[in-house]
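User: Last request for today: this protein with S-adenosylmethionine, please.
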Amino acid sequence: MAPDRTPLIDGFQRRITYLRLSVTDRCDLRCQYCMPEKMQFLPRAEVLTLEELHRVALAFIARGVTKIRLTGGEPLVRRDMIDLVRALGRRIGNDDGQGHLDELTLTTNGTRLSEFADDLFAAGVRRVNVSLDTLDPVRFAELSRRDRLAQVLEGIAAAKAAGLAVKLNTVALKGVNGDEIAEIIAWAHGEGHEATLIEVMPLGEIDGERVDQYLPLTQVRAELERRWTLTEDSHRSGGPARYVRVAETGGRLGLITPLTGNFCDGCNRVRVTTTGQLYACLGGREQVDLRAAVRSADPDGALAAALTEAMTIKPHRHAFAIREKGEAPALARHMSVTGG
Ligand code: SAM
Ligand code: SF4
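Assistant: Here's the final one, the structure of the complex with S-adenosylmethionine:
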């Protein structure tokens, strides 16, 4: 039977063309703002198999999704993950009536990039986002609870050498890297990478307190402007980032401000967790169960129906807020489960 090719359009007339697919909730780091040291990972039976992930991705591609970002957890710690990248890579630019991808990309902590950079490029990946919150090895070890900065920097260099464009993502953290942000941006731009700053979001229980970590980007920007000339840049990546140019480094800086500036009006994306739960919004609670669909007797029919249903649950905007000390997080789900 021919696949359902109906475009995915939500209740606010936004067309969904971008899927963030989490391939694992596991990780080789334990970033303090992301998960507790003793993170409880999911039992394997709950996690979609690579074949199921592939089938889910194809259902989205058939409905007009042209960009997929693989994330996690740490996508590169999943065994055989590169097979999924290769399979999806074959859909890039390949419109044979089943839908095609314009871009396949991933978000990684970089620890295993040296090993995979060439394979990723060969599979059709052209850009990767790498998370880098500090350039100081002692701080890195404290923040991620693992001593791996050298590996990450090697991974970033390997990605560049393989021909992958690298965008560095830095979460602004009060009392942790606030004093280092200009240095990270200058380093990134000097290496020819784009840099993006992100406000910490209230997702999941962690060992510390969110209010202690939260550093508004309005404040970071004011501090950067004391040192540098920032001018608005009209570039849009189709995501929530707004951009400025840094005259002194010649590079572009993205700012993602879920808390100080809502960005939902042009949202074109949905997220699927590693257990196959579709969230139409990172901040939303409602979900559609794609795992039940893909494990049903008629996986393709059930997936098509589930995607249509998902369009009815996408909220107009998220409503994040950082709670006071001792209060539960706004959302119990960790970023590593939903996929960052
Ligand atoms: N492990 C990969 C990595 O670190 O890039 C991919 C998954 S990680 C969950 C994706 C992104 O989410 C990273 O850039 C990370 O810094 C960010 N992140 C995790 N928890 C966050 C939080 N509570 N608020 C803001 N960003 C968060
Ligand atoms: Fe792992 Fe990424 Fe979360 Fe850090 S932010 S613990 S690297 S999933």
